[in-house]
Amino acid sequence: MVAEESARGDVSAQRERLIEGLRSYGGRFSELGSLFADWLGLHSTDAVALLEIAAADERGTPLSPARLSERILLSPSATTALLNRLEAAGHIIRSREHADRRLVTLRSSAHVQERADEFFRPLGVQMDAVMAEYPPEVLAGFEALLANLCTTMDAHIAERTRKT
Known about the structure:
With 164 residues, the chain is mostly helical. The protein has one domain: Orthogonal Bundle (Arc Repressor Mutant, subunit A). The protein is built from 6 helices and 2 strands, in the order ααααββαα. The chain has helices at residues 2-40, 44-59, 65-72, 76-88, 110-131, 136-163, and strands at 92-95, 105-108. The chain has a two-stranded antiparallel sheet with strand order 1-2. The longest helix has 39 residues, at 2-40. The radius of gyration is 20 Å and the shape is globular.
């Protein structure tokens, strides 16, 4: 009985450490985004939007203004103003690539992709080296855990959003 309680306490403490580690990683990720914004001479919200657009473009799933608005938690009008700034600065391109010409697709400019690579590539190389120290099955387990945590958070956010 005592061993069982001790094991539960160890697992509970491990879960708390993992959540704290994820929270700490999120803080560092935000700090990195702020450094990138400063490096580009942008407001942090503009840089976050730019990173979202570039990442979606890299994945082959470019964002629409409405989807970007959801991702960065800005109103549609604030997102439009942000996109106007980014487009005027040559950081993004708005295009109409769909059969429905009302749909706008957001793409990052080649210049932004080059700058993002310049800024993030050294960290990417270092992080890849760290992850290479772990066997594929450990990474797969962590990947599954992160996906499940994100799904849980998305459901909670959706529930909270419906209540307000």
